Amino acid sequence: MSVADRLAEPFDRGGKGSHPIGLTLLSGAIAAAVLSPLVWIAMRVLQVDTEYARSILVRPTTVEILLTSLALVAAVTGASILLGVPLAFLTVRTDLPFRRFWTIAVALPLVIPSYIGAFTFVMAFGPSGELADALAPLGIGSIPSIYGFWGTTLVLTLYTYPYVFITTRASLLSFDQGLVEAARTLGTSRREAFRRVTLPQLLPGITSGALLVALYALSDFGTPSLMRLDVFTRVIYVEYNAFGRETAALLSVQLLAITAVILAIESRIGDSNRGAYVGTSPKESETTVSLGRWTAPALGFCALVVCLCLVLPIGILLQWLVRSPEGATRIASGFRLEFVLNSVQVSLAAALVCAVAAVPVAYLAARHRSRLAELFDRATYVGYAMPGIVLGLALVFFGVWYDASAGGISETLLGSNVAPGLYQTLPLLIFAYVVRFLPQAVGATRSSVRRVDRSLTEAARTLGRTRSAAFRRITLPLIAPGVIGGSALVFLTTMKELPATLLLHPTGFETLVTYIWGLRESADYGAVAVPALALIVVSALSMVVILSQEDNA
Amino acid sequence: MTRHVHDERSAVSTDRSAESTREPEGDPVLSLEGIARSYATETALSELSVSVRDGEVLTLLGPSGCGKTTTLRLVGGLERPDAGRIELHDDAIADADRGGFVPAEERDIGLVFQDFALFPHMTAAENVGFGLNDHSKAERRARVEELLALVDLADHGEDYPGELSGGQKQRIALARSLAPEPDVLLLDEPLSNLDVSLRVSMREEIRRIIDETGVTAIWVTHDQEEALSVADRVGIMNDGRLEQIGRPETVFERPASRFVATFLGRAGFLSATVADGVLLTEVGELDADALVGVERSDWGALSEEAAVDVLVRPDDLRVTPTSPADADGTITRRQYQGPSFVYRVETDGGDTVQSLHGHTEVFDVGESVRLDLVANHPLVWFPSA
Prior knowledge:
The complex is a heterodimer. Chain A has helices spanning 3-8, 21-46, 50-58, 60-93, 99-107, 114-125, 130-135, 149-174, 177-185, 190-219, 222-226, 232-241, 245-273, 284-287, 295-323, 325-334, 337-367, 371-385, 388-414, 426-451, 454-462, 467-495, 499-504, 512-518, 526-552.
């Protein structure tokens, strides 16, 4: 091509930081798809008679559900802070023995889905559980019930405090102890320095962890259902199964509204977080707090937490596994390898789709700092914040509506309904997973794109490579670890996803999760052991992948 | 007291506009005409015109934000000009008015990045060979070996960038840019990411490599010593404009503007008034022929009693302690630099000048001093602001 030809080319302004049109359209389409469930819920609610809607929303049981949900969120969040912050402090700033071990051990409960934890707690402390059996010969006939508010709070706290632990730990690690020394030289006491310097620096970290816990507690479906606490998620599911779909839709909107409030608080915290001072690497040895005679109680505290979160549930599951030959045969008859393959299959599909969808959104957000790019990036987070039960319900509405419409059109045009259905099909289930977990892939991908210096692709271009060749040869290999890490996270979370799976899995398509769920009323806890342990092992393996990705980065 | 300052270069024309005719000969390879570029709110470049001749090393020197890196990015094709035209070998590669633009990958212009921008997932040899996509495998290997030898890193071809030292990364980056035999090589502050101790040897090494390949180069820097020592010609940029361009010694000795005078080396100004063909300063009279550019057109335009400022560098002046009655000014600061002292003197008339002395000539701050002009070269003057 001659220079004159090139000069005749239209002067596109792509190089001036404006959006590449193709990439922008692609990102926009992905964002729209992820946002669509909100539309389905809204459409369904608008069909409900206004008077009926009002009567549902103000009836006493609805108010009670609201209050119970809020109380659960508050209790779990408060308790998680009480567990997570001291543990973070102990593992970062003190001379606690075996700190490295405890750091990993107290973060590990993230690997165990909370409903599996709830299962084992019911096994251990329920009316016919291990503890009751052990105490019965001693003449103690009844123990406080594990069901209800406090049991739910306990279990949720034990499996969500790691969020507070991890964010607080990060704040503590990045906190520059030199700031406290500066404050002391400016005449403040140790206590005052803590209040005026340390605390404001740590607060954003603690708060962001606490908000994650609050969102989890509000949206968790499995634990309250197993522990028989009537919060939004449980009631929505019950109503849905009792054909109270309108009530379920109305409650879903209420639940979404509360979620939105928590998110609004979080985004404000996120803004103030930007002002946080990031110091130079802290000189650990100089500022470590010596525990002295508090060493034993501190060790005891860590050990207790780890016992309750990890040793107890895994111990119970292992015990059930080996206990009786009778149990073993029942496991063998009820459990099939197919469930594992099904779980792995849908999770892999979700991870793959997320990886592919995350790259354009993340690339646009990382390379083109504009409102539109940020909007698309943020939009992918909506599905993440949406409680799984609400998402599942929204896609049920969509599937049913689509099947009816497509069937209708097909019959009108062709005389018979030959349109492929969507409701309770694998594509819809996988789409639900993608909507829920795409942000995990987007987040990991976006930060890895940001780590690839712009000058690397510019260097490739001055060396004769086109924009797309530079992307293939330079950007893609360098962001691959981030994309794979994000997808591994999607795989992990999809494997243990409960509510959307329950609502959307095709009939006869059993996964580990639906199988475990089916056993909840049977009191046949021995049969839970194998799939539950399998889930924990898969989760743990994925966590290993994620950690190794972080090490490479 | 009249001081005669001898112009040793009086034989050469002192008309600054004519200087360019004395520069090294060579056809222009690259030329920028009326280039302007602005970002959201600020203007990075306005009306920049410059041409680079075949085989020369042109350094662009200026404070940060002066537009020198933007100039490189425009030439490299990483940015588009808002106005103006860039030509490479008489072909337009960017023309804002006619709307033409040759993308970076089709320009045959190499760029050495400030942070080296080595691809971390490729070995040094793979980095060097990256731009050789049109070559056969054997040709490519031979060329890579040749370049690794050129930059003295023949044994490091299999190393990854993470395993190389700063200076080695710099050499690999240079080799990578040179591998496709670019028409023009651009260097963006190539030494700023290196240890200070390495910079002097590295800049000589880079100049050697450039000379060996004979490539035409534009070298951007904010370090005046670097700019003056490696350049065939140096361009001083400020605020998006080219203030002056010429041989390093010309630019240093005959700055075309106050900015250039103060940016290169230490500068003091003595205020003076024109009277009867001579300049009256606080430290005595200066004959008009002691000045650069007396034939300058604006000299004739200066009316009697017009105010001008004469540029005096620290080595042009000497101070001698004296009684306050005979004094021209007072020492206000003393800077010890090891082998020498630089004294800052505030004259009675309010000018601030500096004077360079050996380390044995110790005077105190507050001492009254007489000032003597000892320059053995013509002095530069500017109309008073």
